[in-house]
Write a structure and sequence with these properties.
Length: 224
């Protein structure tokens, strides 16, 4: 009679986990401060408004988080070339027929819930990898539009590199609208992402939830 034992597989390296949690924190700060910039609160104080400078602090947090977000994103691009097999860019680009078949199988689990059998993939499954590739493109878009708008009020060299974005996209108002819309797309993605992490952790039982803390996942091995 065969028995199933669990073997540990080191999937997410420290740089990948560091990127993930730093990205999470910066996106939260950017979303909250970005919303306040678009819809400022009417805070009434008895003192002179210049004494509080609360809106200036909100903008500073937004710009500071944007720098951290941008360079963290560049680091993840770099690590996609030098990291282990689970961090590589081949996981995010769909170019094989078996990846398309896996996407169909994942949809049966995630959307149709017609299957509860664990997937064979240890790292990102093909649907998750392709989704993250689209998210990376959204990160790039937010960086371009964000620094493009910032270039009009900054003499720093980095924002000035993106001064061409606003004229190309039809002006400041259009860029702000797109930048704001993508913020809500990130919020929706985060909700779905958290749900699927918990769901796959339940269906697969491979430590999906804890793997982004310790880096390890678990796979069943048959023994006699």
């Amino acid at each position: 009679m065969k028995k199933a034992t669990l073997g540990r597989v080191y999937v997410w390296e420290v740089p990948v986990r560091f990127y993930h949690w730093l990205n999470f924190l910066t996106v939260v700060v950017l979303a909250v401060t970005g919303y306040l910039i678009g819809r400022p609160l009417a805070i009434q104080r008895a003192a002179e408004a210049s004494y509080s400078y609360w809106f200036g602090k909100v903008r500073f947090l937004h710009f500071a988080a944007a720098y951290v977000f941008f360079f963290n994103f560049l680091f993840r691009i770099y690590w996609g070339f030098v990291g282990n097999r689970y961090a590589g860019w081949k996981n995010f680009i769909i170019y094989r027929r078996d990846q398309l078949r896996e996407i169909a199988e994942v949809l049966k689990v995630d959307i149709l819930q017609a299957r509860v059998k664990p997937m064979d993939t240890i790292g990102h499954n093909s649907l998750a990898g392709f989704t993250y590739f689209l998210v990376f493109l959204a990160f790039l878009f937010q960086s371009l539009t964000g620094f493009g708008m910032y270039s009009a009020m900054s003499d720093a060299w980095l924002p000035r590199l993106f001064a061409w974005v606003v004229p190309l996209m039809g002006g400041d108002f259009a860029v702000r609208q797109w930048h704001h819309a993508f913020m809500w797309a990130f919020i929706v993605f985060a909700i779905v992402h958290v749900y699927l992490v918990f769901y796959h952790d339940y269906v697969e039982g491979r430590g999906v939830l804890s793997s982004m803390a310790g880096g390890w996942k678990f796979i069943e091995k048959e023994t006699k």
